[in-house]
Amino acid sequence: MPLFFLFTGLGTRLRRMCEHISGGRWFWTVTLFACTHLALAALITLPFDFYFGYVQQHAAGKSNRTLPSWVTGEGVQLTVRLVVASLLIWLPYRLIARSPRRWCLYCALALIPFAFLALVVLPVWVAWAVGRSAAFPGAWGFSELRDPASLPLIVFMFAFLWLAILPFFNLFARHIELEADRFGLELTHQNHAAAMVCVRDAQSDLAPDWDTFFLIFEATHPSIATRIKFANSYKPWERGVPLVYGNVCKPE
Fold first, then answer.
1. Mutual angle of helices 115-129 and 151-188, in 10-degree steps
2. What is the DSSP string of 10-45?
3. What are the structural domain ranges in the chain?
4. How far, in whole angstroms, is CA 6 from its chain's centroid?
5. In this predicted model, what pLDDT tens digit does every residue of 133-160 receive, in sequence order?
């Protein structure tokens, strides 16, 4: 979506419209641009959100929300995003204007989980994309990141950064979930009961096991198949192997 705004020139035209409406006042231009960008992006992606978030969920029997309820929920989410954007979007642009070389550092400090990657990837990317030359006017309609029309580019850069982080985040989340299963098994030794809980969950799950793409970019939990295999096979106490959580898991 950010690339759509960049390469079609829609971002530049949108900025000009916002400047005209706001009378050239910087704060309101940035705020209005951000809100309009969010609203247009939500409108463009609405058919996809409706299919994956409503139609598919109902077809899988995973949701009983009515259409008005779903629409209300989407509206509330968009409203929250608009309010947050209205309150905060000026901050990164102010940082860019005051510190063109270090703005990404300050933003990274505000986003602690992504700081270490932002400090390495984002400055290099920005230097390549922007530099000191006016390379953008012919292509995207702006020459500096402090221009409100650069918002789609900034969104794209952070989205790309998040995409790079996501597999590691998901891997860590699945590890934590599997360790929770391990803790429960070491505490109770009830392998069959744990497996049956997963079997019951599998009855309402379209995909008891993940494909590679879903595993890397979507799965924050181990698949049902993985949890069942683990529940049936993890029995270190039968082999006399020390328990990972043996200091606290001492079943009667």
1. 160
2. HHHHHHHHHHHHHTT-HHHHHHHHHHHHHHHHHHHH
3. 2-164, 167-238
4. 21
5. 344 555 667 667 677 777 777 777 777 7
